[in-house]
């Protein structure tokens, strides 16, 4: 019982692997009495520190990152520190970042990198911030489940469906415009709205800043997008892999040919250097370093994020970052004073 308690306390205070090693030494038959006494004292001190950590942590931002961060928050509050309340919202990357640069939140989740103008606002407002990758996501092109004709497309075909004027001057696009064997039915395009980093990633990075096809149905809530696509046989939409994985009974998916054969997104190939690399992106959380310095709850939760991100990322539809990378971010957090 003492060994288990010691390990839990060390983990709660950021002990990591060193804490596990010390605990193992304390319970080993060859450890000296002096070492045991020293380690027991350290455990008692850490226990006091852990009990002292309480308060609230405010997080907003990306709807894509929300399932991962809310899962981490749940685990933290239930199993790590019930004395801390972690509040996770999902206004969208850009809307959440606006709250963050004004000092309203401790973390801002994002499905794209922080913008230069946001950094300038932070500097003007005295916000000392650091951007941390937390996982990998794959942009996923989804269909109505009964769509059995467009399940394999080239990347050029996919993107032409969303780019204004790419197929038709008036943006009325038929499936048969892409392949003459496909139905002569109008294609309906869907995606998240401008509040979301996923929208910005798709428009800015994947279609090089070109306008979306007129009439594209853009939504704030991903659950609404899933519902709309699942009810429209001529729908095609885009969002992060996690929302597809959690709704596979309602959605079909496009296997994309980037030049070497069709690739269906999965946690095995969502990687910056893998088969699905052209549609893979990092997702982030931005940490207010002053909040972490002044509020032990913020710093402790930040540490915990990188303790469990590799384990919880796949559970929420993300590919994990390498363990050594996450460990490096954890050490950076622990070094905040």
Automatic annotation (TrEMBL):
It is a lipid-anchor. Residues 52-306 form the PBP domain. It comes from Alkalicoccus urumqiensis. It is found in: Cell membrane. The complex is composed of two ATP-binding proteins (PstB), two transmembrane proteins (PstC and PstA) and a solute-binding protein (PstS). Residues 19-48 have a biased composition (Low complexity). GO terms for cellular component: plasma membrane. Residues 13-56 are annotated as: Disordered. GO terms for biological process: phosphate ion transport. Its main location: membrane. Belongs to the PstS family. This is Phosphate ABC transporter phosphate-binding protein. Keywords: Lipoprotein, Palmitate, Phosphate transport, Signal, Transport. InterPro entries: PBP_domain (IPR024370), Phosphate_ABC_transporter (IPR050811). Part of the ABC transporter complex PstSACB involved in phosphate import.
